[in-house]
Amino acid sequence: MKIAVLVKQVPDPNAIRYDRRLGDLVPGTPQATNEYDLYAVEAALRLKEQVGEAEVVVASVGTARETLNRCLAMGADRAVAIEGPSLPGDSLVTATVLAAWLRREAPDLIWAGQETSDAGTGNVGPQVAALLDIPLVSNVVGWEYQDGILTLEREIEDGHQFQQVRPPALLCALSALDEPRLPTLRGIMEARRKPSERLAPADLGLSDDDLAPVVSWGGLFVEEEAAAGVVLQDVDPDQAVEQLIAFLQERRLI
Asked: Are 55 and 2 in contact (CB under 8 A)?
């Protein structure tokens, strides 16, 4: 069995600093692995341990060296980084690149995080599944694998839902899955010897037209906060109270 896991490196949510002059994050903002993606990696590794003969391949679009190294140290067998000047682009560009790579790899199962902490669209998993024309199961919070069939527990608006699917399929992980393991010293040392590949979109048969973004984003900004109110100065306390009561009554607050 071959299991692919789609991961992304994002700005560390606990260390984000914004520069008003640049209209962007402060250069050198620490990076981290997207949290949901770590749960996807853990699920893939546990499935590998269950079936025995399996390969776990992690892939990212854009620069993600630290993230891929961490996944390898956790136990993934191989890593692939797809990089280019216009990547990662919008969610459809990212999905197009990943789908091209997945067609070449032909994995039996694909795991991905439900969404990313930087963009939060939740689009990439569904878009990849649509491009590959395979089943998608989102909001996965539990799973069992037996006799070639996955029984999946999904979190939905008013409770949980169980669903069965036979690979190939794409599964989107939530944080209610098993806690991601921490890399051991042995895992970190072994990660240095594991295969790691860097690809460009052209290596996957993609042209510039395939990477043209559909959605464009403006720069980051912080809304100006303005407080409106009435300030009473040099007013007798009794008059001030009367005016406050009238003010509240006029707005039907009392």
From this structure: yes
Name the pTM for this structure: 0.81
For the chain, the distance separating the N- and C-terminal CA atoms, rounded to the nearest angstrom, is: 68
Q: Is the peptide bond before 85 cis (omega within 30 degrees of 0)?
A: no
Query: Do residues 8 and 121 lie in contact, with contact meaning Cβ atoms separated by under 8 Å?
Result: no
CA distance linking residue 142 with residue 155, whole number of Å: 9
Pick the CATH number of 2-211 from 1.10.287.1080, 3.60.120.10, 3.40.50.620, 3.10.120.10: 3.40.50.620
Contact assessment for residue 93 and residue 86, using Cβ atoms and an 8 Å cutoff: yes
- Pairwise CA distance, residues 83 & 228, whole Å: 49
Q: What is the mean pLDDT of residues 76-98?
A: 91
Range with lowest mean pLDDT among 35-49, 169-183, 215-229, 230-244: 215-229
- The residue with tokens 């944080």 is 175
User: Rounded distance, CA 147 to CA 116, Å?
Assistant: 32
